[in-house]
Automatic annotation (TrEMBL):
One Pfam family from the record: DUF4260
Name of the protein described by the UniProt record: DUF4260 domain-containing protein
Domain of life: Bacteria
Entry-linked InterPro entries: DUF4260
Residues spanning the membrane: 5-22, 28-47, 59-86
Entry keyword set: Membrane, Transmembrane, Transmembrane helix
Transmembrane helix among keywords: yes
Organism: Gracilibacillus orientalis
Amino acid sequence: MNKLLLHLEGAAVFALSLYAYFHFSFGWLMLVLLLLAPDLAMLGYLINNKIGSIIYNLFHTYVFSLCGVLIGFLFNDLLLAISLIWTAHIGMDRMVGYGLKYATGFKDTHFDRIK
């Protein structure tokens, strides 16, 4: 049940982020170009699993993307657009089962440890 709730939560965040993105009339091109950009954080795994998991998790937690949404909403449309795409990416990952990583390996996520 907990896994299902995390998948549904990810789907809700993904849908809401996309709704907000288009509500503010941001364009398709930026969305297409940047939707998978946070996955570049996987390059940290070229160093080692510990560094890789830290970098990946920093780019795949809602804390920073939602701070960007708030600051962007208040001050800067470009930051708002990028942060909404970033948040949508995280939601999309959660929706399909990609979670935060443990230092033991890329495939060892918080989804795997939830029963």
